[in-house]
Amino acid sequence: MLSQYLKNVNSRHLMGSTNVLAYTLHGVKHTVTATLHVIMGHIQPVDICTFSSPSKLLRFGFSAMFGFGARTLALAEKHRWIPPNQRKDFAVIRSLASLKPEECELSFLPLNNPQQCFQENDRMKKDRIKKSDSKDQWHKIEGHFLNVSIMAIPCLCAMAPRGLAPNTRLNNGSLALIVVRNTSRADFIKHLKRYASVKNQFNFPFVETYTAQEVKIQPIFKSGYETEDHVPEEGNYPWNIDGDLMEGALEVHVRVHPQLINLYGVSVDDLDDSKATCSCL
């Protein structure tokens, strides 16, 4: 399954609408730059995640969003007849107009020292995971959330010069868990606008960030809940995984696999002199 996924990495990530993997590996969305990295043999180990239900492996991926980010993508997919740039703005504005939180339960296994994971070999990682896999070390939070992001890489792009998850790296073995609790529409828009600037997008009382190695999300389904544009059925919620829409199971388990794959590129910490291109906010 991993080999099949990697065959599509170029088309989905390097050449997608946000190009987060291209920006994070190369600093720009430039075909010649990517080709030069291949010619020069710049190999970069990269963390990747598995997304699983209680019964099966769903897919591999680098980043995921649940809540606003997923519903915006689901809405955009329903209106593919609209030109791409206009469709993106339409979906964001429409989702903001019908903004509603998701009630769910989040469990995560914290990672206290990402640098330690970066320096460990495979045997040391396995031993540490066995020792830390006790139930009492899992943290649990419940509530109403507007958006939940789980990122194994910084996810730099033109719309987020600092990255969607600036506190993580390409291969430090950590997941950035970003939780946006229920708040007013005006405050949520302020949070979104921060992504397009150099200001800290997490400096809000309703935004919480954690560093984890595993995350479990279990939405609390309520019969009769629906929105105008997307009606979730029990056990079927939208997920935005690397820009692909996935109708996920009621419970999704995300686990990071440190340096599982090698890609051509280098580690890019920041994009300098980048301007946001989203005109919808």
Low-confidence runs: 6-16, 270-274
CATH architecture level-2 label: Sandwich
User: Helix count, per DSSP?
Assistant: 9
Please bin the fraction of helical residues: 25-40%
Mean pLDDT: 79
What general form does the structure show? Answer: globular
Which sequence of SSEs, written as H and E, runs from N to C?
HHHHEEEHHEHHEEHEEEE
Give the number of domains: 1
Classify the secondary structure makeup into a structural class. alpha+beta
Strand content: 25-35%
**Cα-to-Cα separation, first versus last residue:** 38 Å
In CATH's first tier, which class applies? Mainly Beta
How would you sum up this structure in a few lines?
Helices cover 29% and strands 30% of the residues. The chain contains nine helices and ten strands.
Structure in words:
The protein is α+β, with helices and mostly antiparallel strands. It has one domain (47-259): Tumour Suppressor Smad4 (Sandwich). The chain contains nine helices and ten strands. The protein has helices at 2-7, 9-14, 20-26, 31-40, 68-78, 84-97, 114-119, 122-132, 185-194; strands at 43-52, 57-61, 63-67, 102-110, 139-151, 175-181, 207-219, 237-241, 244-248, 252-264. Strands 1, 2, 3, 4, 5, 6, 7, 8, 9 and 10 form a ten-stranded antiparallel sheet that branches. Strand 8 and strand 9 form a beta hairpin. The protein is globular and about 55 Å long. This is Ceramide kinase like. One of its GO terms (cellular component) is membrane. Residues 62-281 form the Ceramide kinase C-terminal domain. InterPro entries: CERK_C (IPR045363), Lipid_Phosphate_FormReg (IPR050187), NAD/diacylglycerol_kinase_sf (IPR016064). GO terms for molecular function: lipid kinase activity.
